[in-house]
Amino acid sequence: MARPEFPLTEPGAAADLLVVAQSDLGPEHPNAVTLDPIGELDQVSAGLLWAPLAEHLGVPERHVVLDLSGIEFFASVGVKILVMAAGWARAHGSTLAIVVTTRIVRQPIHLLGVIDHLPVYSRRADALAASTG
Length: 133
Fold this sequence. Notes:
By secondary structure, the chain is α/β, with parallel strands linked by helices.
C-alpha cells in the first residue's frame, strides 16, 4: 500500500494554521505516542497532520492517540485524513484512537456517516486506555 501524501502548497501558510505537538507516553508505554493538532485543519494544513500520522501508524504495533480537542476549524479533508489514518493503521498493524470532544469535529464525521467506522472516543483517558491497554 503506497503512502498517500497531502502536498503543502505554501508551507509557511500551513504552519500559521496548524501545529501538531507529539509526545510519547513514557517507558511504561514505549510504543505509544500522542498527536495533538492545534488550529485549523484544511487543505493547506492537511499535510502537517498527515505526515506524522502516516509515519507513526506505519510502524507495526505502534499505538497512536490523535487528540483533536485543539481543532478550531475542521474542513472535509479532515474527515478524509481520519478515514485514511484508520485504514493505514489496519494495513500496518498499528492502532489509532481518535479523541473528539467538540462539535466542530464530531458533526462532520457524524454527518458523513463515518463516525461509527472510526475508533472515536469522547475522553482522552478512554482513548489512552484503548490504545495502550
